[in-house]
Write a structure and sequence with these properties.
Length: 80
């Protein structure tokens, strides 16, 4: 139980590690996993915004002038 006092530990579960990744108590591995989790969370949030934003905003103008395709002509989400 080397990480019981880390930021984010909350009652009633305490330090939650159901797969036992931190069982060895290696602080360097713990820090790397925590940084990686934050990075992946940020990428996921940006991806969600990239999926939602086109529902409300489209760039003006042409995506391809040669093909006469406007940004407004491209469907959103899975229809694209």
């Amino acid at each position: 139980r080397a990480f019981e006092n880390e930021l984010g530990v909350q009652k009633p579960t305490g330090f939650w590690d159901p797969l036992g990744f931190t069982r060895d108590g290696d602080a360097a591995n713990f820090k790397r996993r925590r940084v990686t989790e934050i990075k992946h969370g940020r990428v996921a949030m940006l991806a969600a915004m990239g999926y939602i934003t086109p529902e409300f905003f489209k760039f003006p103008g042409y995506l391809s002038v040669a093909e006469n395709i406007k940004f407004a002509d491209v469907p959103n989400g899975l229809a694209a």
